[in-house]
Amino acid sequence: MFTVLSALIQVLLVAINIYVFVLIASAVMSWLLAFNVLNSRNQLVAMLAEFLYRVTEPALRPIRRFIPHLGGIDVSPVVLILVLYFFQILLSSVLRDMYRAPALF
Fold it and tell me: Where are the chain's structural domains?
């Protein structure tokens, strides 16, 4: 049971890291599209932008409801990254405590 829980926590930590990179890629992609650096009519760019939007928008939408608009700046990815890092630290401490705790059997 201990090794299964440990492996599950480690997989969750990796998944959080990957999702943070996807959030950063989504933010950068939206900036590049907004400043016309990338052509949104390009099929590859459009597919990548759509994928990033579909992956990140369900997590960002609830945050955008509570954060006021700051002009043209969207800080919801930053807030979500901070929340994800909080959970990552929490999971890391649980994993560390599991290795430190004495065996019960």
Answer: 16-98
